[in-house]
Amino acid sequence: MIRNMIRGVVRRIRLMREYSYDYRRMVRYSSAVQWGNSREKLQALIIIRYHGIEKGLSLPQPRPGFGRDKVAQLIDMLRTYIDSYGADYSTVTALNALDAYLEFNAKAGGQDESLRRNVEELRRRAAAFPTPEGDLTAGCRELTEATVRLAGQAPFETFMESRCTVRQFSDEPVDLETLRAAVKVAQKTPSVCNRQPWRAWVVSDDTKIKKILEIGGGARGFEDQMKVILLVTSDLACFQSPGERNQCWIDGGMFGMALIQALHAQGLASCCMNWSKTQDVDRRLRRMVALPESESIIFLLGVGHPREEFLVAASARKPLDDVLRLDQESA
User: Fold this and answer.
1) pLDDT computed for residue 304 by the predictor
2) Could you give the C-alpha distances from 243 to 11, 18, 25, 197, in angstroms and in order?
3) How far apart are alpha carbons 318 and 27 in whole angstroms?
4) How many structural domains comprise the chain?
5) Which of 24, 129, 226, 305 could form a disulfide with 86 if both were Cys (CB 3.0 to 4.6 A apart)?
6) Percent of the chain with pLDDT strictly greater than 70
């Protein structure tokens, strides 16, 4: 018995040591403490801000002039970034998103000459640097229900290109058997030692969905659109060592992506909603849905049938060479 107690204390100490390693890296390399004080951090913040514009434009009924404070922050970030690091795909895409924002507001009768002048000034600064390669389209794209419905029959590359985050759903209910079929396909996701720690909790009650979205936030402007929410979770009970302290997020995230693709193949649209929350928010949702304490929430997934025609955020991808890196021996 004493031996087991000692073993338990040793394991706790090892686990604390590993989490302190994660803590030090988070403090040093993320914006959780030092906000935007490197090129990579500031670039990420710019992408977050301009994608916020795209999300706003893709809502069912965008409010003219939405997000003015965040747009102003984006202008300041772009000035700092261009002055410090020059222009690249992130700055050009951000300016394209601002153009789309200006165009939307102009059509709604709300000209913003001050913002237009700021964008023009930033474009002049960016023009002094080489033109980035790739598709830097920003704002929104228009899709159709037929595009989503036919995606499952397309070649894999076309299938992946056709999947988008959707915030405009039709009133058609989501059939439980269709969800079951998608989850069954997603179960083929690989996991460490085939432990399959994931679950998808189905919430279809309108009142409960509304309360969940109020707790989580992030669905403002389209909270009434989703007929079903899936809570993707991963069970900590499946993991056994300090080295596996983050494995629930890896396995759960892989399952979540497979589930999104499986829903797309079934002709359903989805919107993945971040669950990087504080413990207070996390506990509020747990009390509502009665999740086991051992299950970590990976993200929320809004699901529904797409409208016949709808808008989605352009969501430009990073240049391939920024993602695919070769080590020196492979180059």
Assistant:
1) 95
2) 11, 8, 16, 16
3) 25
4) 2
5) 129
6) 99
Residue 239 lies in a domain: yes
Q: Is 193 left (phi over 0), alpha (psi -120 to 50) or beta?
A: left
**What's the whole-model pTM score?**
0.78
| Partner residues linked to 144 by β-bridges | 309
Q: Is 216 left (phi over 0), alpha (psi -120 to 50) or beta?
A: alpha
Residues with Cβ within 8 Å of residue 250, at least 6 apart in sequence: 192
Provide the domain limits for residue 49: 39-138
Contact (Cβ atoms closer than 8 angstroms) between residue 289 and residue 200 = no
CB atoms within 10 A of CB 19: 13
**Whether 240 and 305 share a structural domain:** yes
Pairing type for strands 269-274 and 140-144 reads unpaired
Q: How confident is the model at residue 21 (pLDDT cuts 50, 70, 90)?
A: confident
